[in-house]
Every structure is written in structure tokens, then in C-alpha cells.
Amino acid sequence: MFGLEAIDLARIQFAFTISFHIIFPAITIGLASYLAVLEGLWLKTEQPVYRDLYHFWSKIFAVNFGMGVVSGLVMAYQFGTNWSAFSDFAGAVTGPLLTYEVLTAFFLEAGFLGVMLFGWNRVGPGLHFFSTLMVAVGTLISTFWILASNSWMQTPQGFEIVDGRVIPVDWLAVIFNPSFPYRLLHMATAAFLATAFFVGASAAWHLLRGRDNPAVRKMLSMAMWMALIVAPVQAVIGDFHGLNTLEHQPAKIAAIEGHWENPPGEATPLILFGWPDMEREETRFKVEIPKLGSLILTHSLDKQVPALKEFPKEDRPNSTIVFWSFRIMVGLGLLMILMGGWALLLRMRGKLFENRAFLNMALWMGPSGLIAILAGWFTTEVGRQPWVVYGLMRTADAASDHSVGHMSLTLILFVVVYFALFGVGLGYMMRLVRKGPVVGEGSQASDGGPGQKRTPSRPLSAASEDMDATDSQTERT
Amino acid sequence: MGIDLSLIWAIIIAFGVMMYVVMDGFDLGIGILFPFIKDKSERDVMMNTVAPVWDGNETWLVLGGAALFGAFPLAYAVVLDALYLPLIFMLLGLIFRGVAFEFRFKAKADKQHIWDKAFIGGSLTATFFQGVTLGAYIDGIPVVNRTYAGAALDWLTPFSLFCGVALIAAYALLGCTWLIMKTEGRLQQHMHDMARPLVFVVLAVTGIVSLWTPLAHAEIAHRWFSLPNLFWFLPVPGLVVLCTWALLRAVRNNANYAPFLLTLTLIFLGYSGLGISLWPNIIPPSVTIWDAASPPQSQAFILVGALFIIPFILMYTAWSYYVFRGKVTAEDGYH
Predict the structure, then answer these.
(1) Does the distance separating the beta carbons of B312 and A107 come in below 8 Å?
(2) Do you know which InterPro entries this protein is assigned to (chain B) (predicted)?
(3) What contacts B223, CB < 8 A, 6 or more positions away?
(4) What would the pLDDT profile of A267-314 be if each residue is shown by its tens digit?
(5) How many domains does chain B contain in total?
(6) Residue B331's pLDDT is what?
(7) CA-to-CA distance for B98 and B90, rounded, in angstroms?
(8) pLDDT reading at B198 higher than 80
(9) pLDDT in tens, A26-79
């Protein structure tokens, strides 16, 4: 298909299914913690606005969670179907980490999700809050395991190789491998930020249409506090993550910087824009600032940053892709910081909820966090190439031996089915968002839930709205 | 080494797959029976009988996959590689069905038929390819140097296709008897009428698979028919005959619970028969659970989590079925 080889198709297929999947867990992680904060504030202040917001977002959380479970089903099998050589080689390490991720997710679903979604006014407020907290913690524990597995593939340690296969010797070393703490912090924070901008955009949408109520205002306000405080923190975490990558995966940094060679005695410039050309071994059309690369990455004005030509050709990641995916991520991050500052200025002037230019910007920034997450993952995963387990196994040796025809067929099927079905799912989520928070929602018990006879208990049944509701139903001010 | 971790994990995974087959079996069966019931409110009732539990049923499939990866990475790699296409088709069928399940309840009446078709199509596709996967697995997977050594379409054999059809019949019977237990009135009567022919179909396909397997595989024939094995294993087919007889009687007497429980027993016996045929191989016909095991420190590491969490999942599962006991009528809404 399009002159691609089976290995390329295998990579595209994995990238496609995991990219689709990651959107849902990222929002799940962020919303779970947001809901815990909302419920905590409701219990503490007893302001109804927090309770209304809790009920509004818990329905969206439920639909999103359901989509995550369904799209995750495929991920549990993709390693074996598409990457069988990798699964055999590294399964003794990555297999157990994935098993723990699944066990944690089930534990959370089995135990606390039902109470959280359906137990309002049925169980005591303390127990309900505890359930929400456990769901939030559970999503973070799931993140913990899956990132331990991914980070180990980036910076493997705590193992030995026996008969050509990885054998774990020290689980603590495996889990807490060098890149893990940075990646975990970076991803969890990214999930929080992505959710904050999603929530902020929802509020902006309602305000732009004149649907103003205390809950909508509170949503925007909370989202922009997050942007103000957490976006700069994320930049700092990202900087540390970058320094860690420089230490353990210098070729990735060279590719991100589009930096090809180090003339003796010359500090590394920072290339702002350009087009890294893998064939010509240079970055064309570049706009650069002298010495800034050294300053950012080595925190000095004379030390050099590793250059791509220092690595054999077959060991270089694709600089064209990671150069740009990295800049998309950083660019969006800078916009987020800007939004936080702008919101603070407007807030001090009392115009946060009226400034249309700002609200429009907030609306457009809605998907920014998710796009930044995808761009970041492309940077770190493409930047790991040509290795699947860094320094140990090449991606080309990791794949199952499927033909181009088979890989094309399954890829097309995945694309069609995912867009059709998850498109409907996302559309339904957007419909719930457009409905907006309802004042007084949640003063009664939710209908359904485990523990009650004859009631629903699946995540998606927490949202009862008609998916083809006409706009007249959503026209509510 | 006192504790055989591989054996423990083989039992856990076999148990998980069993849970999956039994529980997703009847809710896939409901999708298979959907075309035979045209009435909208009866279709609603059918779906409502599994609505509160179906997604929990599917979690066992994810657990099975993840546990196989952790405990037997070689089997995970080779079996999933060899059965690539049927597995992908099965997963796509399950996704279709899962999403249809949710959105059918939320769709307007005039769009519901689209989700009905997705539900039927997804259930049939998932079941058929699950059966094909099973058939190809029994047929055996050649392994050389720890990788799959067969061709891409080796799974496509008359036997595996027949297993696909057989599983559709088996899940239909499970769904049918589940509905007998969970419904009343016209729908239940309809299911009672369908149960009898379905039992005969299931008996026929089970018989064919049971004969075809040893005829095609000498080592499986040897496992069953050599002495003294024959005497040890004779109760299995004996119980199948007894169970079928009791099942037909229960259906004739319009019993409520017995048909489902007896069908479960039948499925369990079939599963045991499969276990007898394949033991101790995890990649038939030659790779054993010990050959495919991950190192003890990996198996022990995940066993800690599994022993803590699986009982919890089981308790929750039992509780949600208990809460949901009794008949479902058109007045109940679970969506």
C-alpha cells in the first residue's frame, strides 16, 4: 500500500490504534481528578455550583471511560498480533507490567466506579467521596504501570539477557528506570492540562452563546487557574525530561534539534524552524539562534549538544518528524502559558467572562492539550527509533511476519471502524458538553447503579441523554 | 522448587477464559438470536437481560490476554501471531457490538435499526471468529526457533470454519436458555420453542467436533482412547449424553432455571474435553506451559497482584449478578 513495507504498516497501525486510544484515558485521568476536586469542594463549601458541575462532568467522564475500555481491548492484543518477536524477547518484563495495568483498571472498575457514578445520595457523602478519590487514584496507578512499561523500553535496566531474551532481575530497577519519573510526571500533568483546556473550551462555548450561569463561570475560572499554575510547571518538568533524554538517548535530542554536526569549539545554536533532511544530512531553510541550544540543554554557553552525524546512519531517528512534532508540542505549551497569563489579566480587570477574543481563543484551545499529548508521544516514540527496546532490539526485528496485503487490510478496517464508532462516541460526548451544566442537578439520587435492584451499572448508562436530541433541547440558557 | 508457578498461571488463565466463554457466551448469544425476534419491546427486554453485566463479562477477555502476555509470553507471541486475522476480526466484531449496545439505547427510534444491525453483525462476527480461532488453535501451530513457522492463512481450514459455526450454535443455546431464565410470557415461550431444535444442533456439532478432532490428530486420539485413559475420561462423554437428556426434558417441562444451568454444564464439559485433549500444551501440538513460561520472578511478581485482585473481581461479579436476579420485564429499564 503506497509503497510501504509491512514493517511500516505495522508501525502505522500501532500508532493509529494507540493514538485513538490515548485520547480517552488522558481525559479519564484528568476528569477523575477534576471530579474529586469538585466533590471535595462541594463537601467543604456546600456551594451547589460544585455539585452541579460534578454531575455534569461525571456523565461525560462515564461516556469517555466506556470508549477507553472498548478501544483498550484492542491494545491488550496488539503486542502479540503485530509485535510477536518483541513480545517473546521482552515479554518477561513488559508482560507483567501490562498485566498489572489491567488488574488495576479492573480493580477500579469493579470496586468504585459504580458507586461513584450511581451512588450519589444513595451512599453517605463520605463513602461517595472516597469512591471518587479511589477512581482518581486508580487512573493514576494505571498510568504508573503503563508508563513504567514504556519507560523501560526507552531506558531499560534491572534485567539480564539469557538465551537471547530479557529476564528481569530487579523489579524495582525495572519499574523505576531512569526516564520513568520524568515521563510519569510529564504525562500525568499533560492529562490534567488537556482536561483543563477541554473544560475551559466547553465553558467558553456556552459563554459565547450567552448561556451564562455560575457553574459555567466556575468551569472557566478553574480551568484558567490550572493553565496559569500548571502550564509553567509542565514546562519545567519538560525541561528536566529533556535533560534526562540528553543523558540516556542523545540521538533523540540531536534529532529533535535537527542538529547535524559540531564544528570544534562552537556552541550549539537553537534551530527555531527548518526542514531536517535525512538524505542530505542537513537541516534546510533553518532559522537559528546562536548558542541557545547549548544554554537550554547543557545550561552553559560553550558545551556542545550531541549531533546526528556522530551516530551511524542506521541508528538515527527520523529528524524531520520529531523536529516538528516536538515544536508543535512546545508551541502549544507556550500558548497554554500565554492563556493562563491572559486569563489572570482579564480576571484582575473583572472581564474574564466577557472578553470575546479571549473566549474564542479558549474555545480554539480546547483540543490543544490532546494534540500536544499526541505530538509529545510521537516525539518520544519516533525518537526512540530505530530501537523498540532502546539499544537492545531494533523495531525491524520486533514485528510479526505479516504480509503487506494483510497489514493493509487490517489497517483499513481499523481506520474505518474507529472513525465510524468512536466518531459517534465523541459526537455523543460533544452533545453532552453542549447541553451544559444544569442548575440544581444532583439534588436527587441518580437513577440506577449497583446495589439497587433493577438498575443499570455500566459506565455509559450514567449518561441518559438521547444521542439524536434536537437542538431545541440544548437551547437552554 | 516447591510451587509450580506455571501450573498456577495455567489454571488462572484457563479459569479466566472459562469465565469469559460462559459469560460473554450468553450475551453474544442474545445478539445471535436477535434476528429471530422482530418485536421492538421484546428486543429491548432481551438486551436488558444482559445490560447491567455485559461489559464486566468482556473484561475477562482483556485479563486473559494480559495474563497470557505476563505469564506465557511465548504463547502470547506465537498464538496471536498465527491467529492474526481471525483475532482482529473478532476484536472488531466485539467493538462494534459493544458500541452498538450502548448507543442503541440512546438512539432515536428511527435510527435504532442501524444499531440493531450492528449488534447482530458484531455478535455473529465475534462469535464466528472466536470459533475459528479455537478451531485453528486445536489444529496446532507450528513453531520453529520460538516463532510461528506456518503461513498467514493456515488458520483457514474446513475444521476451523466448522468450529466457527459450532460456536454460533453453542452461544445461541446459551443465550436462549439464559432468556428462558430471565424472561416470561411470549418471549419466554418463543425461547422454549427454539431451545429444543437448538439442543439437537448443538449436540450434532459437538459430536462432529469431538470425532473430527481425534481423527485428525493422532496424539489427541491416543490421549483419549489408550488404556487406562479411556476409563478415566469416559465420564466426560457420558455426562454429555446425560446432560443433554436432562436438558431436553427440562425444556419440555417448561422449566425456568434448569435449561440454563444444564447448558452451562454442557459447555463446561466441552471445555474440560478440550483441556484433556490439549494438556499440558499451551501451543498445540508441542509447546508445553513450562516451555512457554516467563521466568519465575515474572510469574511470581504478577501472582501477588492477581491473588489480591481476582477474588475481589469475583466477589463484585457475584454481587452484581445477585442484585440483578429474577425476571426482566418490559417495564424495567437498564439503559
Answers:
(1) yes
(2) Cyt-d_oxidase_su2
(3) B229, B276, B277
(4) 899 999 999 988 888 889 989 898 888 888 888 888 888 999 999 999
(5) 1
(6) 64
(7) 12
(8) yes
(9) 999 999 999 999 999 999 998 999 999 999 999 899 889 888 888 888 888 888
Residue B334 is assigned to a structural domain of this protein: no
For the record, the C-alpha cell of B112 comes out as: 435504532
More confident residue, A85 or A471: A85
Which among B135, B123, B133, B131 is positioned nearest to B58, based on CA atoms?
A: B123
Residue B295 contacts residue A90 (beta carbons within 8 Å): no
C-alpha cell at B15: 479459569
> Are B70 and A98 inside 8 Å of each other by CB?
yes
Q: Which helix (DSSP H) or strand (DSSP E) does residue B147 occupy?
A: strand B147-148
Report the CATH number at residue B190.
1.20.1630
Closest by CA to B317, choosing from B62, B29, B52, B15, is: B52
* Percent with pLDDT over 90 in chain B: 46
Residues of A in Cβ contact (< 8 Å) with B152? 402-403, 406
Distance CA A392, CA A153 (A): 9
A349-381 burial, b for 16+ CB within 10 Å, e for fewer? eeebbebeebbebbbebbebbbbbbbbbbbbbb
Rounded Cα–Cα distance for residues A203 and A193 (Å): 15
A21-to-A71, B77, B97 alpha-carbon distances in Å: 5, 22, 18
Q: Is residue B335 part of a domain?
A: no
Signed CA dihedral, A72, A77, A81, A84: sign only: positive
**Residue B84 in contact with residue B44, Cβ under 8 Å?**
no
SS3 content of chain A, % helix, strand, coil (to 5): 70, 5, 25
Nearest CB neighbour to B95, from listed A417, A428, A455: A417
Residue B265 within a domain: yes
> What's phi and psi for B278, nearest 5 deg?
-100, -30
Residues 150-169 of A with CB under 8 A from B: 167-169
Q: Provide the shortest C-alpha distance from residue B8 to chain A (in Å).
A: 15
Range of the structural domain that residue B245 is part of: 7-323
Of A8, A1, A4, nearest to A395 by C-alpha is A8
Distance in angstroms (rounded) separating the CA atoms of residues A244 and A315: 19
pLDDT tens, position by position, A222-278: 999 999 999 999 999 999 999 999 999 999 999 999 999 888 888 899 999 999 988
| Average of per-residue pLDDT across B10-35 | 91
Q: How many other β-carbons are positioned within 10 Å of the β-carbon of residue A83?
A: 23
The residue with cell 523498540 is: A388
Q: Which of A79, A421, A456 sits opposite B52 (nearest CB)?
A: A456
Domain annotation covers residue B142 = yes
Inter-chain touch B301–A96, beta carbons under 8 Å: yes
Span B114-137, pLDDT tens digits: 889 999 999 999 999 999 999 999
Confidence of residue B335 (pLDDT cuts 50, 70, 90): very low
Nearest to B302 among A100, A428, A468 (CB): A100
Share of chain A above pLDDT 70, in %: 91
